[in-house]
Design brief:
The complex is a heterodimer. Chain A has 15 helices and four strands. Chain A is an all-alpha fold. In chain A, strand 2 and strand 3 form a beta hairpin. The longest helix of chain B has 24 residues. The chains are: A mainly alpha, B alpha/beta. Chains A and B meet through helix 3, strand 4, helix 11, helix 13 and helix 14 of A and helix 1, strand 2, helix 3, helix 4 and helix 6 of B.
Chain lengths: ~350, ~450
């Protein structure tokens, strides 16, 4: 009733190729984006920013990156933690060596470095597939974290191997460090994520995105119709790593502020981001965001509900939280193996018919 | 199905919103960053219980501190930095604002060091965290008394020197460090390197990755290289595994020494008789035969106000007592703050002044029911690490108890002080801090 395409005619190629061909979708997404930019900053304090929104945005960007590689191009990767580390350490080295460099450039450059590293570790994908590729990318994970822990130049010879982000200004406003206003940090991350998501949505609809999907669906057939596996797979690794590198930059620079390699960029991060795209939906931009929201927000909502709402003991709540998070993941995967994004799509289908489903 | 899911979600959200806590009378908000889950829980639980029990005992016996009730706010960090940050952001605004934070994690301490001056909440990283925070001129809001990791490393060298018959006998010896591969475990390296230069021993570094369950290769290397002494900076499961591995290669336990975080009952008990003779640092006594412990049993355990799962038999374990002394320092800081500022409604900034005015004498310890429990602590504006003295204790596996085998050693000021000066100056420069005059 409220959601239908009837009467929405497309009279040009542009309107036919729009990202959101249905007007309601378009207005809804515009509304969400405008609210996120214009309304949310007025209502957030330190808790919302540092505990909820910044991790959500950083992980969304990382999930977006991994989704390009795994969801769209079909190459399983367990190297996300290592690639996040490349982004983070590039940011650290750049801001400590060139403090006056514009932070947007720092983020982009962190992405570019990570893309280069990603391409190198993507080379084995030309010969190995599936689980074997996952193992090969695992090597990237362990090697990179080991390197950042071992080579002192990367952490500026600090005695503990900890990297700490100095305060950085963008257009005269602090955006990193504890003195930066919450809204500034949030808006900066939101800006990066919004542009990146818009770009990703368009890349996957372009020739190169279709080539990725062809490789994913059947690489031999794709090769036969003239898609070059070398360029296609490596470009997927490059673009994916670029996104994960930018995510690493936000993750370390804006959100955490200080990090030690094993804990912040360990194998757990690789799994976490992989779970995000599996729960959210492989091969879906929206799914990256839904998955990140699921994995980041749900533990916090559950915890606050049990501790503040039900006055449970903190430790009991933690145990229940670990168990229920596991059960919810299983539940959602049974209900919809294609992820939350598919659930959303089904919901839209139903809304289209409502209130007359037959 | 969708409706049901939506229903569950909105239910959770609405109920979260409904239960916003309401403000009441002024209370002293003291967060407790616990970890009762995960690979570090064996050590996190006794500490959290000690902290909890002492403060609850104050509430029950004295009605709080100077008659003002303590609101103990626990938060589970699982020794994970990110969860620690979430906890910090949550507890800092609780009630009238958190008064003092004791993160019990070097990683979380590093996160909070830049936040403390902004939020005006002092951080007391008691014998952990960033060593150079000892320099109060630079680190106004961070305290790490009664000793730092670099002091522990220096004292370990002194003790080894005593056992070998003089520090000059260290020349040509081989000393290995088995450490948790994190900021925490790497802390002593710089001091031990400086010591190696000065005393001429060979220094071996053996990192163990989180969580520390896999150490076979580390101990194989020790068996091959046969270091004369092994030092350990471990935490959580890593300690138990290391002591068991050391026993399995028959490494002499009385040449194996842990930091004060690697010397509690949980760490040695799994190795049984084999752990006999294992050494560790300490800055307070073990055991439950102090009047304060009697009060805890009476007001907390007999009254059934314990933390979930706390057991009476475990009162007086090393880490329980460590949690207790952390609570003593925090409550004394608040008491000082009330005296200095002449008000009962203190805030974080006032408690910082209270920490800086800390002068916990033996007479005061006796009043608190802890005679001879630890060394007196005096903090000044320039020295946030207090006495910086460490004793060595040894495990007696038959009696199942820890015994002091040395007096409190003073640190090696000639090695450690220049390192502290250098590191804190670096921090001040990076962050544009002008050191205070004092």
């Amino acid at each position: 009733m409220f959601y239908r395409e009837a009467g929405q005619f497309k009279d040009s190629y542009e309107s036919d190729q729009a990202i959101f061909p249905v007007a309601q979708d378009r207005w809804f997404v515009f509304g969400v984006v405008i609210a996120a930019f214009a309304l949310v900053p007025f209502f957030i304090g330190d808790y919302w920013t540092n505990a909820v929104l910044l991790p959500l945005l950083a992980y969304s960007l990382a999930a977006l990156g991994l989704n390009i590689l795994t969801g769209y191009c079909g190459q399983v990767s367990l190297g996300t933690g290592g690639f996040l580390a490349v982004g983070a350490y590039t940011t650290f080295k750049l801001v400590t060596a060139f403090p006056e460099l514009n932070f947007i450039l720092v983020v982009l450059f962190s992405g570019a470095t990570t893309a280069a590293v990603g391409v190198v570790f993507g080379l084995p994908s030309l010969r190995i597939k599936g689980f074997y590729l996952a193992v090969a990318t695992l090597a990237a994970q362990f090697f990179l974290v080991w390197m950042f822990n071992k080579v002192e130049w990367f952490f500026n010879y600090s005695p503990t191997g900890q990297i700490t982000m100095p305060p950085v200004e963008l257009f005269g406003v602090l955006i990193t460090g504890p003195r930066a206003p919450s809204a500034a940090k949030y808006l900066f991350c939101l800006g990066v994520v919004a542009v990146a998501a818009y770009a990703a949505k368009n890349i996957v609809r372009s020739r190169i995105g279709r080539a990725w999907m062809a490789i994913r669906d059947m690489d031999i057939a794709a090769e036969l119709i003239g898609i070059r596996p070398l360029m296609t797979k490596l470009s997927a690794f490059a673009v994916s790593s670029f996104y994960i590198g930018m995510a690493g930059s936000l993750y370390f620079g804006v959100w955490l502020g200080s990090a030690e390699p094993i804990e912040a960029f360990g194998i757990e991060q690789s799994f976490l981001v992989l779970f995000m795209i599996i729960v959210g939906g492989l091969g879906s931009i929206l799914g990256s965001f839904l998955g990140a929201a699921f994995m980041v927000l749900l533990p916090i909502v559950l915890k606050n509900f049990m501790v503040d709402g039900l006055s449970m003991a903190v430790v009991t709540a933690k145990h229940v939280e670990i168990m229920s998070l596991g059960m919810l993941i299983v539940f959602f995967l049974i209900v919809e193996p294609h992820g939350l994004a598919r659930l959303w799509q089904i919901a839209k289908e139903k809304l289209r018919l409502w209130p007359f489903p037959h | 199905m969708l409706k049901r899911i939506a229903g569950i979600f909105s239910g959770v959200l609405v109920s979260t919103l409904l239960f916003v806590s309401t403000a009441g009378a002024y209370e002293l908000v003291m967060p407790s960053m616990d970890y009762r889950t995960g690979p570090y829980a064996p050590n996190g639980i006794p500490f959290a219980n000690g902290y909890h029990d002492y403060l609850v005992m104050l509430n029950e016996r004295d009605g709080g501190i100077n008659g003002v009730k303590i609101n103990l706010v626990p938060c589970e960090t699982a020794y994970n930095t990110k969860q620690g940050v979430e906890c910090y952001e949550k507890v800092k605004g609780e009630g009238d604002g958190a008064l003092i934070i004791q993160p019990l994690s070097t990683g979380i301490t590093y996160q909070l060091i830049p936040k403390a001056p902004v939020d005006e909440i002092p951080v007391h990283s008691m014998g952990y965290g960033r060593t150079s925070a000892a320099n109060g001129k630079v680190f106004k809001w961070i305290f790490n008394f009664p000793a730092t990791y670099w002091d522990q490393a220096a004292v370990a060298l002194k003790y080894i020197g005593d056992r070998e018959g003089g520090l000059d006998k260290l020349n040509g010896k081989k000393i290995a460090l088995v450490y948790h591969n994190s900021a925490y475990g790497k802390e002593p390296i710089r001091t031990l390197e400086a010591g190696a230069e000065k005393f001429g021993y060979e220094f071996m570094q053996l990192p163990v990755d989180h969580p520390g369950q896999e150490q076979k290769s580390t101990w194989l290397q020790i068996r091959r290289e046969k270091p004369d002494w092994v030092l350990m900076w471990g935490w959580g499961v890593m300690n138990q595994v290391a002591i068991k591995e050391a026993a399995s290669i028959r490494y002499p336990m009385d040449h194996f020494m842990g930091v004060w975080w690697s010397g509690s009952e949980n760490d040695v008990l799994p190795a049984g008789e084999d752990a006999d003779g294992y050494l560790s640092g300490a800055f307070h006594a073990p055991g439950d035969d102090f009047p304060a412990h009697d009060d805890i049993k009476k007001y907390v355990y007999d009254a059934g106000k314990t933390a979930p799962g706390a057991e009476r038999e475990r009162i007086g374990e090393v880490l329980y007592n460590r949690g207790l002394i952390a609570a003593v320092y925090a409550s004394e800081a608040i008491r000082n703050a009330m005296d200095i500022h002449g008000t009962k409604e203190v805030n974080g900034a006032m408690v910082r002044d209270g920490l800086e005015a800390m002068d916990l004498t033996e007479a005061r310890l006796t009043e608190l029911g802890l005679p001879g429990f630890t060394i007196p602590v005096k903090v000044t504006c320039a020295n946030h690490a207090g006495p910086r003295k460490v004793a060595i204790q040894q495990w007696d596996a038959k009696a199942k108890e820890w015994n002091f085998v040395s007096d409190f050693y003073d640190t090696m000021h000639d090695i450690v002080d220049p390192l502290i000066e250098e590191d804190s100056a670096g921090f001040a420069e990076e962050n544009g801090i002008t050191p205070r005059d004092c």
